[in-house]
Amino acid sequence: MTTATEQDVGYNSKIEGNVIFSTADAVINWVRSNSVWPMPMGLACCAIELMGVGASKFDIARFGMEVMRFSPRQSDCMIVAGTVTYKMAEAVRRIYDQMAEPKWVVAMGACASSGGMYRSYAVLQGVDRILPVDVYISGCPPRPEALIDGMLRLQEKIRTEKSLWQIKAGRDNPEHLPTGPR
Fold first, then answer.
1. Do both 26 and 62 map to the same domain?
2. pLDDT, tens digit (0-9, with 9 covering 90-100), for 52-105
3. What is the rounded average pLDDT of the residues 155-169?
4. The pTM is what?
5. Are 136 and 85 in the same domain?
């Protein structure tokens, strides 16, 4: 039997025997990071590689992301995979706006990240011009291993996010968190 370490449990956590003391933020962020429901926004070739991640060889289910949602109201992570044209940009933004908070965006591939090899009047030079991108995955198209690595980076980012009340109170340092009743 292995014991959990402070890094496994979460930030600002303490382990004493069989009891784990932690903040609600650490628990909530751990749950969010291990239950990401991605929505594929497959616009070009990268969408084919995105399909490979769900297959048995790569099995993204090991990381808590096996449920691909095709409805923005049921997902919390949009994976933009492929070339975004100006004509499609409005639809991508509208779909993003329909997602519930908190929401994250992954730019998969060179085209979604920077417009790729298409320096054209019709191609958006990076989806970050219309959406706040959390993780960029390079490649043309990126291999399934690169997508898994990008999703693991997203999980790590989610685990270390600050809660809204911490940001509003100016409590970016975990030492200022309340430790119990006064």
1. no
2. 887 777 777 777 777 788 888 889 899 999 899 999 999 999 999 999 888 999
3. 74
4. 0.76
5. yes
Dist CA 50 CA 38 (whole Å): 11
Residue 181 domain-assigned (yes or no):
no
User: How far apart are the C-alpha atoms of 23 and 12, rounded to whole Å?
Assistant: 7
The CA distance from 177 to 32, in Å, is: 20
Q: Are strands 19-21 and 14-16 parallel, antiparallel or unpaired?
A: antiparallel
Q: Quick check: is 177 in a domain? A: no
- My answer on whether 55 and 5 are in the same domain is no
The reported pLDDT for the residue numbered 13 is: 59
Tokens of 124: 């958006």
Which residues lie across from 85 on neighbouring strands? 123
Return the biggest CA–CA distance within the chain.
62
Q: Which helix (H) or strand (E) holds 146?
A: helix 144-159
Range of the domain at 144: 37-159
What token pair was written down for 10? 């979460």
Same-domain check for residues 74 and 152: yes
Same domain, 22 and 53: no
Q: For residue 5, is it within any domain?
A: yes
Say how far apart CA 84 and CA 107 lie, in whole Å: 11
Q: Which residue has the tokens 């014991």?
A: 3
Give me the pLDDT at residue 128, please.
92
**1 pLDDT above the threshold of 50:** no
Together in a domain, 104 and 27: no
pLDDT score at 179:
42
